[in-house]
Amino acid sequence: MHANYSTSALSVMLLSFGPLLLPISAGEPSAKRAEREKKYLSHTKVDVQAAEGYLATTGLKSDSESLLKFLQGLPTEETDRRTLAGLVEQLGSDDFQTREAASRRLTAAGIRRMPVELERAANSKDPEVAKRAKDCREAIYTRNGQIGMARDLLLQRKSVSALQALLKADSTDVRQVAALGLGELGQDAEPAIPDLVKNLQSEDVAVSGAANEALWRIGPGATKTIVGLLDDKRPIIRVRALEAIAWQVRLAYVPDDGKELLPRLIEMMKKEEPKVRRAAPQTVSAIGQEGNKEALTALVEALKFEDKARLDKDELAVPSSAALALLQLDEGAKPAIPALIEAMHDRDNQLAGQAARALGTICRHDADETLVKAITAVLGDKNRGEARGLAAMALGNFGTSAKNAVPALLDALKETDEVLPANCMHAIVEIAPTDEKVINALISELEDTKPAADRRFAAGCLGRIGPPAKAALPALRRAIPGDLTRGDDAQLKIDIDQAIKRISK
Fold it and tell me: What is the pLDDT of residue 312?
């Protein structure tokens, strides 16, 4: 039954001075705000009949009172990974009561914490262990579906009071979906703001993230509260506030596109806890996307540090965060190109990589030979670590303008690395998809000695090339796995079948 859940039910669970008070906008949303809401906000489409029908098959009544009672009665989930693995072992205990207790606790853990050991136990040679593991897995999926469907119905009924009450539930899964539901209700959920703020403090990242999303989705009515959180004593709350402000600026909920906040945000990039400094550039970038030149200047300055030897890892991440923030400005960050090129030569590989990535976006329509050569040099430097993969991505963004980088990309593709080969494959297909050497290189990546992920990516790339990759058809057919019991092999077959279909058109 769980295979037929609505996407909304499953996706719900498969889920950073003194006080400054801003005026709150009144009246109907502006045209700009309406346009941004349409662009950035998605809403769950609830099939009431399907949700009620599903809940009935699991023995749950679908009236609001029954749903609330069910959700409030779910226990706190076990989160310790070692404990969960130990519970799986107890499914094979000689003691019946121990086996029963282990089954109940595993079921209550929820889908976000379902241990990998449970999947292995489902294939155990011990019939009882296998049956119990499968029953637990099925019960976990059912529990997940019940929570999602119940939330969908409360959301459809706009039951703000019920969803608000669920923010105090014992189950973190329930608190997470309740917060997400309140966020979808927008300004109608303003009464829940105090309880959402309390959930920001949750040690469960999914809960605190959902509460934060709900706050910024509520709209202008939450702006004053969010800005006030910049004064909270806890760095993680200030980080959450920065994240929320960034989204509120994008949605035009903050008056004057956040211009009044900018001086304080710039100060936070310079004189704050490292984790907060690292988050601040993204918020400054959101204001910069509204054409604020002061924001652009501040981000360029954040690329530089005088003495990195005395900085901890969070502070070292600030320049990288600034580079990523400049990327988000897209072509509006063209004045920052010289600073980004300089940053790309920095000894810090994380900064160099993010700078290359930013340049790949900002200059994607007008990359010159000098820039292509500079980024190719980063790709070719084997001491550059993670920066090499980001350099490959940047070169791919340049398309045919980076044709001189193809030999370096083909060389890098031969290396054993978890990320680099996929980035190189993406790049060569973007730059020279019909080049015989490119097609042959992708065929080589189909060999069974290659990692499964690389083989799948190669098949996908050949499919993107389409009919010009006909020479790859024999290799693709040979690469179809015979044993489909493993998940990786089953997915590889799907990817290869799709590639063959596209190439054979």
Answer: 62
